[in-house]
Amino acid sequence: MKTMYFRKFSILSVLCWVSLLFISCNDDYEIPDSVTKLSSDCIKRSLGPNVVGGQIEFAYAMALPKEKGKLVAARVEASIAGAEGTYLEHRSFHTDNVGSDVGVEVGSPSETNGTVTEVRFTVDTCASTLRYYYVVPEEARGKEVSFVFFAESSNGETAKYKMGSYKIAEMDMKLDIKLNNNTYFSIEDMKTYTAAEAAEHPEKIDLVYLFRMKRGIKFLHALVAPTADADYLPNITLPNGLTNNTKIKKVYSSCDQQLARNEAGVFVDDLDLQQIDLSRSPNYTVALAKMNGVWIETADGRYRAYIYINEAKETSAGITISMKRLKVR
């Protein structure tokens, strides 16, 4: 698991993020003498692996001395066109005195044509910070993507700033999957099956989720391979044909920020899933609790996954999980 850090702000970042995030040219703010023309800077706000279907977020700051003119347009050109949902904010953001993000509308909603996303300014401003959200398309899986940010002012000046390139992960990620008691689950498909559906596609089923409260035994929430000992599948009658002997390893103090969304700085990436050794792991795990993690390898060795337990009540059935999954062979 990797820990990520922000890069340091440049002088212009400090200028734009602290003082210029949204300032009308009619305001009394004085642009420092060191900034004599249209200038811009950018930071990547999102952390962790860049996953297909996920967002890569940037903040693009631009400013020019108010006597030089005003901003008229901002645009971003991606090396690979983003998926549906890619956009450039038409609000300029700053942080208020209690740390909350505040957005002020400065332009018309962005338009995307192919690889280019653009906002046209509709207010008289000489400084702004716009956020850009790039939704990673399937086309980018395993490739690298880069971005060029542009700002244009009314005096004809243009500023640009290049970001990247950034590697797009091979793995897939799916959030907030709900498992009910006696649910069947496929790692390949990243979804649940009913007993009737499992009987039609027995080769797909890698896990059985069940909840049991047994006197003297802390069984509770469990993920179990269909081939596990019957003691780990109490009162379960499996559909015919379920033969996958899935490897399962529970970890107690593990997390992933993208899956948990309330943890900081730790991520499971492609390399983690490639290198994890589950060859001696059992085919069951019991007493799962919220914030536990589970490493999985399918019986045929084709897929490995990391599952994070988002929700698991202590005394009732049903859990919510999020997962990352990689095809390793």
The end-to-end distance, rounded to whole angstroms, is 21 Å
Rg, alpha carbons: 25 Å
- Taken together, the total number of domains comes to 2
Average of the residue pLDDT scores = 89
CATH homologous superfamily classification of the largest domain: Domain of unknown function DUF4466
Largest sheet: 6 strands, antiparallel
The global form is elongated
Helix content: under 10%
What count of helical segments does DSSP give?
4
Instruction: Work out the number of β strands.
Output: 23
The ordered string of helix (H) and strand (E) elements is EHEEEEEEEEEEEEEEHEEEHEHEEEE
What would you note in describing this structure?
By secondary structure, this protein is mainly beta. It folds into 2 domains: 2-167, Sandwich (Immunoglobulin-like); 172-327, no CATH class. 8% of the residues lie in helices and 45% in strands. The protein contains 4 helices and 23 strands. The strands form 5 sheets. Strands 2, 3, 4, 6, 7 and 10 form a 6-stranded antiparallel β-sheet that branches. A 5-stranded antiparallel β-sheet has the order 8-9-5-11-12, with no helix packed on it. It is elongated and about 80 Å long. Mean pLDDT is 89; it is low at 3-32.
